[in-house]
Amino acid sequence: xxxxxxxxxxxxxxxxxxxxxxxxxxxxxxxxxxxxxxxxxxxxxxxxxxxxxxxxxxxxxxxxxxxxxxxxxxxxxxxxxxxxxxxxxxxxxxxxxxxxxxxxxxxxxxxxxxxxxxxxxxxxxxxxxxxxxxxxxxxxxxxxxxxxxxxxxxxxxxxxxxxxxxxxxxxxxxxxxxxxxxxxxxxxxxxxxxxxxxxxxx
Length: 202
What we know:
Blueprint: H1 4-25, E1 51-64, E2 72-86, E3 90-104, E4 111-125, E5 129-144, E6 147-163, E7 168-179, E8 189-201
C-alpha cells in the first residue's frame, strides 16, 4: 500500500502538468459565415393596354319610361370595336358599339330594337386589370305603336377588363342611358344595361 500511493500521486501530478498542453492544443471551432440570399423582387404582372381591339358583349337591359307605359327588360347583345392609348397608369380611348335587342316594352308589341354608342373611355392601368369610366352619345331604335322610331341620347357608365393573354380580354360593364324626348313623343326613357364582354386585341 505504501508503494501504491506514491505511484498514484505521481500519475495524478503528471496528468495535471499535461493538461495545459492538451488545452493549448485544442483549437476553437471556426464559425462559418452565414450568407443571406436576397429574395427576388416581386414584379406585378403587367399589360400594355394600347392598341386596337374588337369584341362582343351580351347581357341584360332594363327600360323605364317613368309611367308612360314603355317599360320592359330582357336580353341585349352585340359587337364593339375601339382603340386605347396607355400612358403608364392612365388609359384613354374611344369605342363604337352596337347592341341588338328585342326587349318587350309591354304595350301592343312595342319593343326596343337596338342601341348604338360612341363611347369615350378613361381608366386606370392596374397591370393585367383596367378599371374605367365611360360616357358618350347613344342612338336607340324602337318600335312604338307599329312605327319604327329612333332618337339620340347620352349615357355614362363604369367597367373593368382583365387581360387573359396579350391578345384576349374579358370584362364587364354597366351603362345608364337617357333619352329626354324620345323621337318627339314627349316620353323620357331611361335604360340600364349590364353586360359581359370579350375582346381580341391587335
